[in-house]
Amino acid sequence: MLIDAHYHLVAQEWYPEGWWQSVTSMYLNGMKQLGMEMPLETIRESLIPALWDPEGEALIRDMDAGGIDKTVLLPMDYWVLYGEPKVPLEGQLKAYADLQRRHPDRIIAFATVDPRRPDAVELVERAIKEWGLKGLNLYPQTGFFVNEPRTYRVLEKVSELGVPVTCHTGQLGGAPFRAKYGDPIHLDDVVQDFPNLTITAGHMAFGWHEQLFYLAGLKYNLMTDISAWQDVARANYHKFCQVLRHALDRLGPYRVLFGTDNPFVAALMSTKDYADLVKELPQKAPDGITFTEAEVSAILGDNAAKLYL
Ligand SMILES: [Zn+2]
């Protein structure tokens, strides 16, 4: 079983125009930093439109070609930073639900909400109960803490409905996103105050991964995913193997999930190539670092299947 537990299906109208401008400049600078410089026009006219896939056709095609059994879709809500997009959040959530209905064996679609929305609790309740979405994605880097009262109102509802949460953690994204909100330390309160909730810290808390691994050690309802580590895997395979080994040593093999953050980093490494890289760890890891076939199978899909199916 191969499950990508962290994917963002996107359409131009689902995200505010200001966000697309920010992401264009993030790509421009990020690609330069990675030595893959690209002209602004290529990013604007080719790279960005290639991300748009409102019907999920490109996603399903890539899943078929890459042997990916299931993908977890995480919507995003940038309302406070950029205003409402052309299609309000509700429309994006309904589109996710429609896609899940059309591909029930392939797609696991989550809801999202910025807890600062006045109708946050009602929207999440409708998305999960009426439209059938299977979990909640949070992106605190837009400016809220995961352990503040407004977020707790939403988490209380999600806990009552019995679905899992993915919370983006780590220092990804430039301005206007604020890294401090992505510090995994704030999850310490949440996992204790909501013992029935399973929370996946997205991106292995990039930049704070060591803190996350120690924090999560004895918090058995806290998991993590390896999405957006493809640049490290490409540029420094040894370091990637060290970090993943440490994650497995601290959390055990059953709390680490495969994920990509695609389509955003697909230009660096396709979902299939990242899955193959993980699959081949038992054979290819550098001297002194070992992975078992059972660990790899747990990461690639068995853990996500237990959590989501
Ligand atoms: Zn993400």
Task: Describe the protein.
The chain is built from 14 helices and nine strands. With about 300 residues, the chain is an alpha/beta fold. It has a single domain, classed as Metal-dependent hydrolases (TIM Barrel, Alpha-Beta Barrel), CATH 3.20.20.140. Strands 4-5-6-7-8-9 form a six-stranded parallel beta sheet. Strands 1-2-3 form a three-stranded parallel beta sheet. It starts with a strand and ends with a helix. It binds zinc ion. Zinc ion (ZN) binds near residues 74, 202 and 261.
Look at the structure and give the CATH class.
Alpha Beta
Fraction of residues in H or I helices: 40-55%
Largest sheet: 6 strands, parallel
The CATH topology assignment is TIM Barrel
Question: Order of SSEs, N→C?
Answer: EHHHEHHEEHEHEHEHEHHEHHH
Tally of DSSP helical segments: 14
CATH architecture: Alpha-Beta Barrel
Straight-line distance between termini: 12 Å
Question: Strands across the major sheet, in which order?
Answer: 4-5-6-7-8-9
The distinct bound ligands, ions and cofactors come out as: zinc ion
Output the keywords.
binds zinc ion, three-stranded parallel β-sheet, globular, 9 strands, six-stranded parallel β-sheet, TIM Barrel, single chain, 14 helices, alpha/beta, about 300 residues
Map the helices and strands.
Elements: E1 3-7, H1 17-33, H2 40-47, H3 57-66, E2 70-73, H4 79-82, H5 89-102, E3 107-109, E4 111-112, H6 120-129, E5 136-138, H7 149-161, E6 165-170, H8 187-193, E7 199-206, H9 209-216, E8 222-225, H10 230-235, H11 237-251, E9 256-257, H12 271-279, H13 281-284, H14 293-308
Helix pairs in contact: 6-7, 9-11
